[in-house]
Structures are given as structure tokens and as C-alpha cells.
Amino acid sequence: SVLFLRAWMAWRLLPVLPAAQHRDAGEITVIIPARNEKDNIAAVIESLKPAPVLVVDDGSTDGTAELAKQA
Length: 71
Hints:
elongated, 71 residues, alpha+beta
């Protein structure tokens, strides 16, 4: 309970920052970490288009990398 109180008091002291102004910052790239996501990876990539997508495959054994290349 004391730890919670200290954390809450410290949180209250954090400064309130103004909202960032939306600027045309150019294009972003979405990075998707994936491991054994064969059933989901194509739909995820498709849902993010037209943004460029980089899939980082962590040693999948179910063909995730191959499906990501095709998507």
C-alpha cells in the first residue's frame, strides 16, 4: 500500500506534455515480429496496406516466412 502511494505521488509530479502537432513526417514502416503465425500473418499484412511492412521471423517452423513473402 505504501509502495502504491509512492508510485501514485511520483506519477502526479510528471509534467503534462502538450499534444504533438501532426506534421507530414513522411512514410512509416510497420515492423511485425512473428513466430509460427502462419494462420494470421497474411491477414495482418493485408490489413496494414498501403504502409510498408517488415516481418521479422523468429525461426518459425510452420511456413510463416514464406507466407509473409507472398503477402
